[in-house]
Amino acid sequence: MGSRFEIGLLDDVKILLAMNERLAAFALPTLDGRPDYSRGFIGENPEFQGWCRDLFSYYWEKSTKKLSWE
Predict the structure, then answer these.
(1) Structural contact between residues 25 and 19, judged by C-beta atoms closer than 8 angstroms
(2) C-alpha angle 70/59/37, rounded to 5°?
């Protein structure tokens, strides 16, 4: 049996957010709403990582949860 993980679904999110143990990254969409991977913020600063974690938590609380397995 694989590892269990949880998925949170939202109908509409206007940000890009990626995090791991070392880095956090945040970006806004283009003016027409498409993901813009070419510009954003990335950092190892603990304060920035905390801000990204708070933002993730904000959206996670609003999401519909589904369980899944690898």
Answers:
(1) yes
(2) 75
Amino acid, single-letter form, for residue 9? L
Is the overall model pTM greater than 0.85, yes or no? no
pLDDT digits (tens, 9 = 90+) for 9-49: 888 888 899 999 999 999 999 999 888 888 899 999 999 99
CB 69 within 8 A of CB 6: no
The domain limits of the chain are: 12-63
Distances in Å between the Cα of 20 and the Cα atoms of 7, 12, 43 are: 16, 23, 11
DSSP three-state, residue 47: helix
Q: How far is CA 63 from CA 1, 36, 44, 69, 70, in A?
A: 26, 22, 27, 18, 21
Output the CA angle 44-15-3, nearest 5 degrees: 70
